[in-house]
Amino acid sequence: MPTPDALPTTPADTTRGGIDPRGPRFGAAITAVLLLVAVVLGLGGLSTGALVLLTAIAALFALGAFAGIRRHPYGALFQRLVRPRLDPPRELEDAAPPTFAQGVGLIVTGTGVVLGFLGVPLAVVVAAAAAFVAAFLNAVFGYCLGCQIYLLLARLRG
């Protein structure tokens, strides 16, 4: 799903509004692992643990969606620990699609959280599994479902 990104580190990052495209993939990898843990907890009969973890993941999605992808904790982690060890990115990407993808992740996980608190524990597992698929696709293949939805909506707007 989408996913968090790095903070700007060069004047080009700031002036063009671009982000390092490796940042969202890094965040998606962390998110995928956490979502997989939530699925396993839910399937293992620990629905309360799954609900708590999914609530934390939804809160992280909310942060990325409303505060912006550059303010996400995974982006800061990528910025400080990973990016210094990599070559500069070949190109920067627009921050809007990954930020929108955070909103999509929030809708999916938030739905699972709300239904979980309403007494539907299977909804927690289903939401976590759906979000896991999206995060896995982004982390492993660089295919961001939320970004694709953003681009489709942009085309439909003209």
Automatic annotation (TrEMBL):
* Top-level taxon in the UniProt lineage: Bacteria
Query: What's in the keyword line of the UniProt record?
Result: Membrane, Transmembrane, Transmembrane helix
Its transmembrane ranges are 26-44, 50-69, 100-120, 126-153
- Compositional bias (Low complexity) spans? 1-15
- Keyword Membrane applies: yes
Specify the DUF4395 domain's residue ranges: 19-155
Q: Does the keyword GTP-binding apply?
A: no
- Segment Disordered: which positions? 1-20
What InterPro entries does UniProt report for this protein, alphabetically?
DUF4395 (IPR025508)
Q: What is this protein called?
A: DUF4395 domain-containing protein
What organism does this protein naturally occur in? Luethyella okanaganae
Q: What is the lineage of its organism?
A: Bacteria, Bacillati, Actinomycetota, Actinomycetes, Micrococcales
